[in-house]
Write a structure and sequence with these properties.
The protein contains 9 helices and 7 strands. The chain has helices spanning 3-25, 33-51, 80-87, 106-112, 123-138, 163-171, 183-186, 209-214, 217-232; strands spanning 53-58, 70-73, 93-97, 116-118, 143-145, 175-181, 197-203. Helix 1 crosses helix 4 (106-112) and helix 5 packs parallel to helix 6. The mean pLDDT is 83.
């Protein structure tokens, strides 16, 4: 048995549970977005530091800390989430799978943080979640979407689902493509042992609302996928067989 991956798994579980409790407790006196975001960034940076994961961020100057964006990134590992929290100059919400709401403490912390849960098996609920997320974006703040919809088992970018593009069009805010490199080597899909190493976050040029309005959802999907492939230095998968 490899000792380091097991210790990293135990550290992740214990520290995430503790910080989830802190995040929920910090909201008991009423919603405090700045406080929760501070807890979130503290969790992400110290979690990764404890795991021996070094994050290198590139071109984050393209994002205003108080800006409003739909950030879209490739998805290959559970490490992607704390990596983005640690690297970006803002603390975004996430469009998350409904199953995460049922994770003890962590699900409650995500609710307190304003993350949006989507049940992909319930079309009406998913559409309503997109509508609510668009409203929240118009009120300020940013959100991260993994448009592949799942983590890829292979070093490639899967075809995109369209919900995030409808969201960006409804909200009228820029889409920012983001490429993640190295996270699959840290924690591949279906693995529990987390390994130390280096990961990179590459922030692409925002696609402004005027360009969003001029493109169809399919055209936007193709454009953003091509940019994410370049930023992540990964090929585009021909189908979803690598999901």
């Amino acid at each position: 048995m490899r000792v380091r991956p097991v210790l990293n798994y135990l550290w992740t579980t214990a520290f995430t549970g503790a910080m989830s409790a802190v995040g929920v407790a910090g909201q008991l006196g009423g919603p405090n977005r700045a406080r929760f975001q501070g807890h979130t960034r503290f969790w992400a940076r110290n979690l990764l530091r404890g795991l021996g994961v070094r994050v290198h961020a590139f071109d984050t100057w393209r994002l205003e800390p108080e800006g409003t964006y739909v950030l879209m990134a490739n998805h290959q590992s559970h490490v992607d989430i704390p990596t983005l929290f640690a690297a970006l100059p803002l603390v975004p919400g996430f469009l998350a799978k409904a199953e995460l709401r049922r994770v003890p403490l962590f699900g409650r912390a995500m609710e307190a943080g304003g993350h949006v849960f989507v049940d992909r098996g319930q079309h009406a609920q998913a559409v309503d979640a997109i509508r609510r997320a668009a409203h929240d974006l118009r009120e300020g703040g940013s959100i991260v979407i993994f448009p592949e919809g799942t983590r890829s088992r292979r070093r490639e970018v899967l075809p995109f689902k369209k919900g995030g593009f409808h969201l960006a069009k409804q909200a009228g805010v820029p889409i920012v493509p983001v490429g993640l490199r190295g996270t699959a080597a840290i924690l591949p899909k279906h693995e529990n042992g987390i390994l130390p190493g280096d990961v990179e976050v590459h922030v692409g040029e925002p696609i402004e609302p005027e360009e969003l309005a001029a493109c169809s959802v399919d055209e936007l999907s193709d454009l953003v996928r091509a940019r994410i492939c370049a930023l992540a230095d990964l090929p585009a998968a021909k189908d979803r067989s690598g999901a």
